[in-house]
Amino acid sequence: MAFSFLTQELAMDLGTANTIIFQNDQIVLDEPSIVAVESSTGKCIALGHKAKLMHEREYPGIKTIRPLKDGVIADFNAAEMMIRGFIRQVNSKRRSFFSPSLKLVVGIPSGSTEVEIRAVRDSSEHAGGRDVYLISEPMAAALGIGLEVEAPKGSMVVDIGGGTTEIAVISLGGIVIQDSIRTAGDVFTSDIQSYLRQQHNIKVGEITAEKIKIAVGAVIPELKDGGPEPYSVKGANLMTAHPVEASIPYQEIAHCLDKSVGRIEASILHVLEQTPPELYSDIVENGIYLSGGGALLRGLATRLTDKVNIQFHVAEDPLHAVARGTCIALKNAENCSFLKR
After folding, report:
1. pLDDT of res. 1
2. What pLDDT, on a 0 to 100 scale, did the predictor assign at position 2?
């Protein structure tokens, strides 16, 4: 293409928790999906990490917004502001005298409705996207993991993000069976907050609960390596408002996440029940792949393998699997049958 240098190509994983942008096979942006705006004017004053520092801290005249909820756009204006701001951040590293034409591939949940798909496309176009392609997250995850999605055999992916868990059986470049449930990272964080309130009488915010999830998050009560050291959490006692401290071992987190992980197990079994026999035998042979931030919960692959009786594998760098797959799709955008325009 004669003027290909005038086109900027970006692959974006627009996630509930984090937005990741790839350019030329490299991560050029990895920031929390959050915007801080002036309450009176609605003007954006911070994005990503800077905005997250203000989250839940109730600054006068400033409110923080997470534009995506359950994997889809909940606040159109904030989403457009965020996408535009992130693209500007990527472009600030370029030295150019003109604005290049922007070609975008964006990952979306497989269970998105037409209205939700339109919201992502409109936000991307309003933020400067000239050519906008959409790819379902489990397909992107499969590409990012390195599975042969075009092959005449079955592959199965479970992508546990911030807002949704995407489960899909893929064959011949298409999704054969899929399920998308709204039990994922945000629900795990909320479970931890509820558990601490009920069992320890401690009130903690979303950010602290997320830190606990990362530090001692587990889904089985006995980890082979002994597990992480208990996490010390400080907060206000709900009865007295006095400051208290509690030591939280990973076994307690495994107990408090049990029901939510059970919902994911049920959804995986539901998809397997509907899988055609030939593809099912391929999946039994090759195993099921886990991606997304939720795949990092300790003991998850072990628990799911025991429950389903099929080997589960955690993808290498599961946090970036969808973004990497979106980048691969971008390179072959003209020939990818599974990309939506």
Report:
1. 40
2. 39
pLDDT at 98: 53
**Gap between the Cα atoms of 139 and 108, Å rounded:** 10
DSSP-assigned letter for residue 226: -
Question: Which two tokens mark 67?
Answer: 């534009």
Residue 216, both tokens = 């001692």
Whole-number Å distance between alpha carbons of 161 and 178? 15
Per run of 10 residues, the mean pLDDT along the chain (length 341 residues) is 64 92 92 93 92 84 90 88 90 63 88 86 86 92 94 96 94 93 96 96 93 96 92 92 94 97 98 96 97 96 97 95 93 77 76
3-state DSSP assignment of residue 99: coil
Angle formed at CA 256 by CA 254 and CA 257, multiple of 5 degrees: 65
At position 145, the amino acid (one-letter code) is I
Q: What is the DSSP code string of 166-186?
A: EEEEEETTEEEEEEEES-SHH
Beta bridge partners of 11: 22, 105
Which residues make beta-bridge pairs with 314? Answer: 290
Q: Are 23 and 30 in contact (CB under 8 A)?
A: no
How far apart, in Å, are the Cα atoms of 313 and each of 65, 158, 217, 296, 338?
Answer: 35, 10, 18, 11, 24
